[in-house]
Amino acid sequence: MREIHYSITDEMGLHARPAGQLVKAAVPFPCDIKIGTAEKMVDAKRIMGIMGLVVKQGDEIIMTFDGENEEAAAATLEQFLKDNL
To answer: What CATH number corresponds to the domain at position 59?
Structure first.
């Protein structure tokens, strides 16, 4: 299992456009991917769950990866976070 932490820098937080792009980046990986905060974790392959987190600028998110190709998924999505949020 792999885990990454990231603080959101985008002034709009994790809003609809990057949430949709995040889901699109996560779906191809067969591993279980969760995203959330210390209080709540959701499936990173479901946009409604991500939107329900209401992540704002300055919030720290946690992503966990468990299963086949977890290292590749973690690297790809960590780069996505750095490039987009």
So the answer is: 3.30.1340.10
Helix, strand or coil, per DSSP, at residue 7: strand
Domain of residue 58: give its range: 2-84
Work out how many domains the chain is built from and give that number: 1
pLDDT 10s digits, 3-20: 999 999 999 988 999 999
Integer angstrom CA distances of residue 52 from 24, 29, 61, 66, 70: 17, 22, 13, 22, 24
Task: Report, as residue numbers or ranges, the catalytic residues.
Answer: 15
Name the phi and psi angles at 15, rounded to 5: -95, -175
Predicted structure pTM score: 0.88
CA distance linking residue 13 with residue 2, whole number of Å: 24
